[in-house]
Design brief:
6 helices; flat; two-stranded parallel sheet
Length: 152
Amino acid sequence: MEITVAKSAGFCFGVQRAVDMVYAQTSNEDVYTYGPIIHNEQVVSDLERQGVRVLHSKEELLQLPKGTVIIRSHGVAKDIYDLIEDKGLHLVDATCPFVRKIHHIVWEESGKGRQILIIGNQHHPEVEGIMGWCQTKPVVIQDASQIDKLEF
């Protein structure tokens, strides 16, 4: 049997950055991530053992009297940022810079009245976050077969 070792392994840049940002906050009290920071149960469990709690909904966020809220690597909708700011909570934005760039693009382009088409699973956190930066109603499709059904 031949074993080939990959040139590199581990998390992509954006995920590694997000994980490092959360670990940097573990010495603080009342630290939360909005959604699991990444899709990795072992990392999320380790962070929970260190006191980082996961918020799963806007309702849970509304209940916080104080603390640090870390935005997941997938990003979140604009209204979550606004809510964190309005509540006076400390915000740490661990959104992948590439995802954040998409948020800026859809915000700007939808602000010009352009239709935004997103290809992905509308229930995936990253797509939900992108949708939440659209100022017009976005269209989300998951596969090429849906293209013929689009009406612009």
